[in-house]
User: Fold this.
Amino acid sequence: MFELLQYSFIQNALAAAVLASIACGIIGVYVVVKKIVFISGGIAHASFGGIGLGYYLGINPMFGVVPFSLLSALVMGTVSKKSKIPEDSAIGILWSLGMALGIIFVYLTPGYAPDLMTYLFGNILTVPRFDLYLMLALDAVIVGAVYLFYKEFLALCFDEEFTTVQGVPTQKLYLLLLCIIALTIVVLIKVVGIILVIALLTIPATLSRKFTHNLKQMMLISILFGGVISVTGIGLSYALDVPSGATIILVLSFVYGLVAVGMEMLDGRGVSGAKNSP
Amino acid sequence: MEKVVEIKDVWVRYGNQVILESVNLELAEPAGLLGIIGPNGGGKTTFLKVLLGLLKPYRGSVKLFGKPPEKSRDLVGYVPQYKRFDFDFPISVWEVVLTGRMSHTGFLKKYSEEDKKAAEEALKTVEMFQYKDRQIGQLSGGQRQRVFIARALATNPKLLLLDEPNSGLDPHMQDELYRLLDRLKKDMAVIMVTHDLSAVSVYVDRIACLNRKLHYHNSREIPVEDLEATYQCPVELIAHGVPHRVLERHNGNS
Assistant:
């Protein structure tokens, strides 16, 4: 297995897995505790429009997806709060609008879109070096923003109304959080693809919640889970010759199931033990 | 001396529905504890949101300490209805109470020593300092309510607003809550809204009824016709749950 490590595509894949775990470990915790999984899924899917735009303009699709995902985050965050229709309906509309735009852009692009599938389903084994640098830069932005706004984000997620009463511009802060989620999605696209991004944003964070009641520790544990599981997934996908993104998600779901059932059984034993004691 | 609260002819509506109709209220120092009772859907939470500057009335003016609510945020402590919280949230008692300092700390700054001292003092006031490292979900309902009061106190408010603080508390815990409010009202004005008539205890200094309109006479007694107007039913039906002195004072000296 170790001789694999000398291949540069494997090294790139491992680096991508680590960079992705950092982003999704930190931001996934906010997505889970603020219960904004659906809007995050919406931003992820709508950003397909950016990939289509990249193809259409003949530039690296990653350059299309960064501004497009930020724009979707701002539009979704504003429309879902301000419009008269229910928030989830507004998200549903924008979600499909972005994807439809992407499909039209790809259709209008002359010729064949070569690695379209890697954006939809990810392929961590083909991450180019340039994308790694982009992921590294985005990770730096994400970590920096969370460091700066840690106290504000914690207050916002716990009690938005009270935080507003404290004079904090919560609406802007919420949009900022959504923009950081958008950047996280960009980091994750190459690893698992737009379709499966939401798994990386929810599963490691939900898992970490079972082990701690502290937000910072949740972030660390979820980075650890994300890292170990994606590397395992890469190994399995290489060994079995199956798609890497889907394999990572399967391993994540399997581990989550294992931990959930294991804890349930431990809890059950604890309760019956307590009942038996005098 | 500036009035604590000065509300003049305030109207609020959602769509076509009028929620608050020509509400007037003046509170001067020392304001003590004002209890506002009224049925569910009578506009109590809306009224508090107007006081907090979260909702703009379409007519009328609201002033706290002579300034609009958005400008007096460091003088107001707020205890929201606590049933809307996610108690599984990964946050400790200490972190919750510190968020009550944000109006003082400022954006992007770390909590200062002064903030920490204020949070510690607030927790000691409600006798919850020994629980500061607990996760918020690991407390009982009454303890949690006291933590939310501590969060409001950390602001060092001159006006404390409480939304249904007694809901979900058993009679013993309610009594403790009122005794705490009784202590706090010496240092600040306290306004408490509730739909529970029995909550209007001996500790309330003034009482008002709110059901779209606010009936307020700057006293601790409610004329029966106000109660009837508020609840829109014969008052005999609801008077059973009301401590006597809310309706009438029995001794003849006053």
